[in-house]
Amino acid sequence: MAISDVREYAHLTSEEIEALGRELDAIRTEIVDSRGERDYRYIHNVIKLQRGLEFGARAVLYFGARNRTAWAIGAGTLAVAKMLENMEIGHNVLHGQWDWMNDPEIHSTSWEWDQVGNSSDWKRTHNYMHHKFTNIVGLDDDVGFGVLRVTRDIPWEPKFSANLLTNTVLMMGFEWGIGLQGVKLNALLPNAEVSPAERRIARAFVRKAGKQVLKDYVLFPVLAGPGGRQAFTATLTANIIRNIWTNAVIFCGHFPDGAEKFTTTDVENETQAEWYLRQMLGSANIDGGPVMNLMSGNLSFQIEHHMFPDLPSNRYSEISLKVRDICARYDLPYVSGPLWKQYLQSWRTIARLSLPDRYLRRTADDAPETRSEKMFAAGPRVAGLATALAGVRKKRDRQPR
Fold first, then answer.
1. Which end of the chain is more exposed for a tag (fewer CB within 10 A), N or C?
2. CA pair distance 3, 369, nearest whole angstrom
3. Phi, psi of 7 (to 5 degrees)
4. Taken in order 289, 295, 296, 298, is the CA torsion positive or negative?
5. 354-381 pLDDT, tens per residue?
C-alpha cells in the first residue's frame, strides 16, 4: 500500500536525510537573500501581459460580433489570459511568493482571483492541507479530490466504476471542483447541523461564485452589446479550456508513475528534512521550455514548488538544477516527463483503479500508482532508491508475462 516509512523506502539513513535537508535549506536561503529587482520586474510584466491579453480578447469579441474568426481569436486569447491569471499569477500570489515586496496589489492577503472559488478558503485547503500533508491518504484531499480513486489505499466501491466519467466532468468544471473543496453546501440549509465556520465557508463560496457567474456570463455579454451571445459562448469556452489545462498540469504533478502516496503514520514526528524528502518523492515535473513554464505557473517544476512553495516561481528553473544534482548524489529518483506522457499515465491510473483490486495484476506494494517500502522486502538492500527501483524494473522485465 502507500509508503509508511519514507526513510526505509528512500534507502537513506537518518543522518543522510538530515544532510539532504541542510543542502535544501541552503538553497532556500540563497534564493531568499537574492530576491530583488529582476523578480519584481518579472511578476509585474506577467500581470501586464495577462491584462493586455484579456483586454484584447474582450475588444475582439466586442468589435467582431458574429464573425467566427473573431470569436475563435477572442475565445482563445481569453483562455490564455485566464490560464495566466490562475496559474502564474493567482496561484503563486496566494502562496505568498511576492509578499516580500509589500505590494498591496499582489499580496496573498488581498488577492482575489478570477474563478468561482474563494481565495481565503483555497489557502486553507491548498496552502495548508495539501502542502503540509502532500499525498498523505486521509489527510490530503487532493488525493482523488474526494471523488476519484487514484491509489489502492482507497478501498474500491461501485461508484469508482465511473472513475473516467467522473474525471471528465471534474476536468471540464475544474474551477468548481477546486472551489467546492472543503465546502459543505448542506450548511446553507436552515436546520443543518453544522458548525458556524462551515456555514461561513458555504456562504462565502456562494457569494464568490455568484459574483463570478454574474461577471462572466451577464456583465461582459451585456457590455459586448450586439456581440453579447458571442461573448457569452466565448467566455464559457475560455473557462472550459482553462479548466482542462489546470486539471492537466495539477494531475501531471501528482498522479503519474513515480509520484508516491503516503500513510498518516509517516508524518508523526516528521522533521523538516523528512518533509523535504516526502515532497520530492510525492511530486513530478513536466518537461518543457519557457512557454510551458509560464503557462503552467511554473508548476512544471512541481518538485521544487512543493519544497519551496513561497519562493518566486521564476526561480524554480535555477533551483531545479541544484535539486537534480542532489537527487543524483543521494541516488534518489527525479520524476519528470513530457506533459502528454504524465497526463496519459494519470488517466491510465484513473481507468485502472475503476476496477476492483481482484482484477489488477500488480501487488498493492509494487504498482505504478501505489508503491511502498515493502516492494524491496524480498530482495537484498542496495545503496540508493533510484538504483533499487531500476533493479526491480529489470527483474520484472525478465519475468514471463
1. C
2. 12
3. -60, -45
4. positive
5. 999 999 988 888 888 888 888 887 555 5
Nearest to 259 by CA among 338, 355, 333: 333
List b or e across 316-338, with b for residues whose CB sees 16 or more CB atoms inside 10 angstroms. Answer: beebbebbeebbeebbbbbbbbe
Give the Cα separation of 82 and 239 in Å (integer): 7
DSSP letters, 365-394, are TEETTEE-GGGGTTS---S-HHHHHHHHHH
For 326, phi then psi, to 5°, come to: -60, -45
Q: Give φ, ψ of 345 to 5 degrees.
A: -65, -35
Q: pLDDT under 70 in the chain at which residues?
A: 65, 266, 378-383, 396-401
Residue 287 CA to residue 60 CA, distance in Å, equals 33
The backbone region for 286, taken as left when phi is positive above 0, alpha when psi lies in -120 to 50, beta otherwise, is: beta
Give the tens place of pLDDT for each residue, 151-197.
Answer: 999 999 999 999 999 999 999 999 999 999 988 888 988 888 889 88
Residues 6+ apart with CB under 8 A from 103: none
What are the grid coordinates assigned to 151, written together? Answer: 491509489
Question: Chain centroid to CA 203: how far?
Answer: 26
Burial 50-59 (b: 16+ CB within 10 A, else e): beebbeebbe
Question: Over 276-291, what HEC string results?
Answer: HHHHHHHCCEEECCHH
**Residue 336 carries which DSSP code?**
E
Which residue in the block uniquely carries the three cell numbers 517500502?
A: 373
Please say whether the beta carbons of 287 and 336 come within 8 A: yes
214 three-state secondary structure = helix
Residue 282 has which C-alpha cell? 510525492
246: CB partners within 8 A, 6+ apart: 83, 86, 87, 174, 175, 178
∠ CA(154), CA(155), CA(156), 5° rounding?
A: 115
Q: Calculate the alpha carbon distances from 266 to 134, 135, 139, 278, 321 in Å.
A: 12, 11, 12, 9, 28
Q: How far apart are CA 24 and CA 296, in angstroms?
A: 24
12 Ramachandran zone, left/alpha/beta (phi>0; psi -120 to 50): beta
Strands 366-367 and 336-338: unpaired
In angstroms, rounded to a whole number, what is the distance separating the alpha carbons of residues 66 and 10? 59
Which residue from 179, 32, 194 is spatially nearest to 119, judged by alpha carbons? Answer: 179
- Residue 351, amino acid: A
